[in-house]
Each structure stands twice: as structure tokens, then as C-alpha cells.
Amino acid sequence: MLSTISRTISTHKWAALACLLIIAYLLPYFILGEDTHIRVHDNLDSNIVWYKMLAESGQIFAPPSTTLPYAINGLPRSALSSSLDLMVWLYVWFEPFTAYTINQTIMRFVAFFGMYGLLRYFFRSSQKSNLIAAGAALCFAILPFWPSGALSIAGLPLALWAFLKVREHGKHTPVGYWLIIGLLPFHSSLILSFVFFLSLMALLWVIDWVRMKQVNLALFLALALMSSIYLIKNYLVIISMFFSEGFTSHRAEFDLGHNSFGDTLNLFSENFLTAHTHDMSVHLQVILPAIVLAVFVAFFKKIRFDYLALAMLANFLLSLWYAFWYWEGMRVLKDASMIFNTFNFSRIHFLSPVIWYIAFALALVILMKYVKWGKWIVASLIILQLMVLFPLNEETKYSRIGTPTFEEFYSQELFAEIKQYIGKDPEDYRVVSIAMHPTIAQYNGLYTLDTYNVTYPLSYKHQFRQIIAPELAKNQTLESYFDTWGGRLYMYIAELGKDYLFSKNSDEVIDQLDINTKQLHDMGGDYVLSALPISNHQELGLVFEQSFENASSPWKIYLYRVEV
């Protein structure tokens, strides 16, 4: 018994050390709580509020046609997450920041154990490769994953490991791998990454069928199981598409992808070298040089490196496809078919981080085996990559940049003062935000005409556009941004551009605001919350009420009443 325990500890000592480092990486969330600096883009400004508002709405199980009144005079229920999404329930069971911390913890440990298990599977549990498996898995686990992606990227190695086990062992596959396949869909997204992962697994199944002249029934059942669970989880979308009239989404007017051929090549280069903000693999400084070095060693030693070459070819093609999806030539395909216009097929690049870290591990194996002092070189490369990754911890990165903490961003005390001053039930009036994200008002229980959502009625977009049309006409970039995409249904200001974070220390002033105040009033707008003073508010029929600020908030909010 003792010898078994001793052998297990010896085998997994690097994994144990890696777990301690993951805990250290997560400590700011547990120690600082809401004083932690976290990502704003597609996080504080959106997803966190979506989960919170749905969790508090009492409409989690409502049919797709139900509307939630907190945004745009009634946001369709189908625009928000499924009731079968674990993230929703984290926000039901816990306070928002606690839910956020739990999700971060789940992501990191699932990413680590998934990649660790996958690499040990590839290396067939070679003792010499345990350092590489644990080191590469640790680096993967502390990537700056997009938080609301949950296990959409972080869970891919675990999913691949489970499918490969089923492929190999068939009906004798241990039940744990089936549980992985069955549970992953509840904390990951089909449309972000797993639709592509399942397509590749299906392709693998077909290749095996052709090569072996035999159907792998277990692998087929695994594909069917995960696909079926995803379809059930996404019942709101299914019902809206096939069983109810629903609404025409603003996505129907997407007009994305007008890059020239030269711009497309630049986008390819940028993605291949630095990746995308939602799937950052942070491979340029250490991993790519390590791979190049391993390839040179392989050539010099005349050894095969087929799998490493295949991984690099895959990353090359993924970046190429991503870039060409936004090439102007692809408009022919997008204009011919609604599915190509509304569904972002370029998101297959979400698979890239997994492939980069598999490639990193394969490169380290070559260096360990065929280079003098290989173990020390491998350890040094892992440490160097960790030195690159640890400063990208949210608290470290965003405190250095100077963005607000979780508590500062939402400034609940400040907004409580504003609501108390207005003195009415928030259900009885509507607000819009200028020079700030509307989700801040939403988080604080205010009902907004503006919003940021992945889908909402196209008819509402057209109505709202009438409010901001004069400002859009002054700034072609903003006009194109709104008209060709429009996910951010914001009160755009030409002179401010896409900047929505103005602290109370800003000396900016909105000199000439041009909005259709009558349209704002007709849509139910009662108040304007602005992070900056509006010089010509009187000309627009806006009555300045009062400004609000306190020591704990980075904002100074100017409250204007709409009076047309």
C-alpha cells in the first residue's frame, strides 16, 4: 500500500507542483474579492450582467417568446443563456463575483487535468515525459482564457482525451470518460468551439470507418451523446428556429468581411503570431521558437516529426481560414446564404490554443530526447513560458493597465444614490448611457433602452438607430460598426469613438451632442446617464438634474432628464 502511494506521488510530483501553482494563480480572486481587477471587454461590459439579470429575472425556464423588461423594452428570453447552462446556475446560487471565481477555478483545473491526461495518453505515460506533460498542461491552464467561454476552450483537451479513449477501448471504456462526454456540454458552448470539435471527431470516425472497414460503434455513440446533449441544452434556439415565429434578429443584417487581399494577409499573420483576444495562446515569445528549434534538431538528427508538422500545419490553416473569412471575396458566399452571414465559421480558430500546446509538448519531447542537457532545456523553456503567462493574470494585467476593479466598475453605492434621487420604481422609467457601458446601469437594476447582446430584434435596432443617426453621420467608422454589426446598441458619440470608459478624472466634455431626443422620448426614454458633461444639453431638450460621485467609484455621473 505504502509503496503504491509512494510510486503514485513520484509519478505525479510535477502535476502536484503544477496544482499548487494554479492555486497561487487563483489567489487574487479569493483574497481581493470584488476588489480584483478583471477583464472589461466581453466580460464586465456584457456576459456577467447577462447571467446576473437572467438569474434574478425569475424567467430562467420561460419560453423563448417571453421578454425580460430590463433592456430594450423587452429582451427576448431566447437572447440569453439556456436554463441548462451551469454558468446561469452559478449566478443563481452565488453572488456574481463568487460565481465568477468558481468559474475561473473550474476552468483552470479542468484545463490542466484535461491537457495533462491527454499528453500522458499521447506519450503513453512515459515517466520521462511527465515533466513535459505537467509543464505544458500548466502553461495551458493559466492562459488568459475568455472567462465567459467557460470550458469552450479550456475543456477541449479533456474532451479530446475522452473521445480518444472511447475510440481505443470501445465498449470497455471506463465510465468516467463517458461522464466527461456527457457533462462537458453543460459548461461550454456548442457554437463557439464544440461544433467544430464534434465535426472533427465525426471526420475521424469516418476516416476510421474507411480505413478499418469497420464501424466504431462506441465512438459513434459518444458523438451522438454529446451532440444530443448540446441540442437539448440549446432548446431555446431550436424552438425559436423551428417551432415558433420568434423574431428577426439584428444578425440578419450582418455585413462583416470587407477586407482587401492585403488586409487579409495581414490579419492571417497577426492571428498566426498573436492569436485572437478570445482565444489567446501566448505562443510567440517561447513556444514558437521552441518549435522552430525542435524542427531544426529533427532535421539535423534525421528523425521524423510528423505529428509536430501536422499540428503546425493545422494552426497555419486555422489562421488562414480565420483571415479569409473576413476577406471581401467571401461576401459572395455570405450574401448567398443566411447561415454563412449570421454564423461565424471563423470561430474554428478557437481550437488553436489546444493545438499550440500539444505542439509545444511535442517539441519539448524532441529537445529532451535529442539535445544535450535536454531535461534542463525543457525545464527552462517551461519556466520561461510561465514567466510570460503569470503576469497575464487578470489582477496583475488589468491593475497595470488601470481599468476598474469589479466593485468599481459597477459602483453600486453610487447608483443607489442616483436611484434614490430619481425616487421612482426603476420599472417606471427608462435610461440610456453616454460615454459608459449600459450594462453598468443594468447591473444596478435600472431599465435601459440601450444594451449589448449577441442577438435582439432587428426592428428595435432600426428604431434605436433613429436616436443616434445624427452622431453616426458624423463618424463613418462608428456608422459602419453599428450598421454592419450592431451588437453594441450604444449611444454612440462621434467625438468619443469607441471609448466607453471615462473616469471622474477625465477633462473631456461633450461639446456638440447631436441626437434625436424626440425619438428617445417616444421610445420611452426618461433619463440620460452620462460619464461626461454635455455642453449643449439644453438645446436638445435635456434638463440637467445633478451630478453624482463618491470616493469609492471611478465615475462621475451626470443625470439629465428628457423633456421634449
SSE topology:
Blueprint: H1 2-11, H2 13-32, H3 40-44, H4 47-57, E1 67-68, E2 75-76, H5 86-93, H6 96-122, H7 130-141, H8 151-154, H9 156-169, H10 175-183, H11 190-212, H12 217-233, H13 235-242, H14 261-274, H15 287-301, H16 306-325, H17 331-336, H18 338-342, H19 352-370, H20 374-389, H21 394-401, H22 406-410, H23 412-422, E3 430-434, H24 438-443, E4 451-452, H25 458-472, H26 476-484, E5 488-489, H27 517-522, E6 525-530, E7 542-548, E8 557-562
Parallel strand pairs: 3-6
Antiparallel strand pairs: 1-2, 4-5, 6-8, 7-8
Helix pairs in contact: 2-6, 2-7, 4-5, 5-6, 6-7, 6-9, 7-19, 7-20, 9-10, 9-11, 9-12, 10-12, 11-12, 14-16, 15-19, 16-19, 19-20
Q: Please give the radius of gyration in angstroms.
A: 26 Å
Strand order of the largest sheet: 3-6-8-7
Chain oligomer state = single chain
Number of strand segments:
8
Mean pLDDT: 94
Bin the strand percentage: 5-15%
Shape: globular
Number of helices: 27
| Helix share, percent | 55-70%
List low-confidence stretches: none
Overall structural class, as computed from helix and strand content, comes to: mainly alpha
Question: What kind of sheet is the major sheet?
Answer: 4 strands, mixed
Distance between the termini: 82 Å
Précis, in short:
This protein is mostly helical and 564 residues long. 57% of the residues lie in helices and 6% in strands.
Explain what this protein looks like in three dimensions:
- The protein has 564 residues and is mostly helical.
- Among the domains are: 255-371, no CATH class; 411-562, no CATH class.
- It is built from 27 helices and eight strands.
- The protein has helices spanning 2-11, 13-32, 40-44, 47-57, 86-93, 96-122, 130-141, 151-154, 156-169, 175-183, 190-212, 217-233, 235-242, 261-274, 287-301, 306-325, 331-336, 338-342, 352-370, 374-389, 394-401, 406-410, 412-422, 438-443, 458-472, 476-484, 517-522; strands at residues 67-68, 75-76, 430-434, 451-452, 488-489, 525-530, 542-548, 557-562.
- Strands 3-6-8-7 form a four-stranded mixed beta sheet.
- Strand 1 (67-68) and strand 2 (75-76) form a beta hairpin.
- Helix 9 (156-169) runs parallel beside helix 11 (190-212) and helix 9 (156-169) runs antiparallel to helix 12.
- The longest helix is centred in the first third of the chain and has 27 residues, at 96-122.
- The termini are far apart.
